[in-house]
Amino acid sequence: MLYVQKYGGTSLGDAGKIQVAARRAADLSRQGYKVVLVVSAQGNTTDKMLAQAAKVNRRGAARELDAYLSAGEQMSAALTAMALGALGCPAVSLTGPQAGIYTDGVHGNARILDVDTSRIRRELNEGKIVVVAGFQGLGPTGDVTTLGRGGSDITAVALAAWLRADKCQIFTDVDGIYDRDPNIYPGAQRFGRIGYEKMLSLARNGAQVLHDRSVELARDRRITVEVLSASTGEPGTLVCNLE
Questions:
Q1: DSSP E strands: which ranges in 40-116?
Q2: What contacts 183, CB < 8 A, 6 or more positions away?
Q3: Residue 1, Cβ neighbours under 10 Å: how many?
Q4: How high is the mean pLDDT of the chain?
Q5: What sign results for the dihedral spanned by CA atoms 116, 151, 92, 26?
Q6: Quick one: pLDDT at residue 183?
């Protein structure tokens, strides 16, 4: 059984949170499951990097910005792999290009065209947990591209689709999908299950739990995505086909 698990930036905000994610993956691995982790840059790393880039060049070249921003996820992936190693669990970190993620050439908002899963499968078959840097891939000219803000969701669903994973889980700082923002509306209701079209509507109208393009990909590939709390790991909301 193969799990693809994605952790957002707030869910990896410090060493303790990285260790929580690592322990969860290690527990699955020790039970005999194969695990692929997709990670975002820690905390507000991307915002800090953008601010730094603006100090150098406010209209910075899109290619160089992608080369720069992709480092945030790479650092997060390497740290997570190191945390797994400290638990005695073999792991390897891969950039988007190393993971075989191929995109079009649109810097800053690329779309995934194909995934060559051979490297990931080889590492999994060697007993390793594979930690993939989200938000990035390889364009047709051999340059790194990024998928846009929140793009690690897209990476996770794409890997689940191409690897034919049994589970695709998105760990966040909320415990599921709500009909309204629970931080503003105390009476907000959490969905146990939600259809792709309803989820797309919420995402396109400001809900920031899932990237709308990740939902489109899940719908088109019929991937069931579970959104759940990174802190508790308790069952959350299933985004799935309700027809």
A1: 91-94, 101-103, 112-115
A2: none
A3: 11
A4: 95
A5: negative
A6: 78
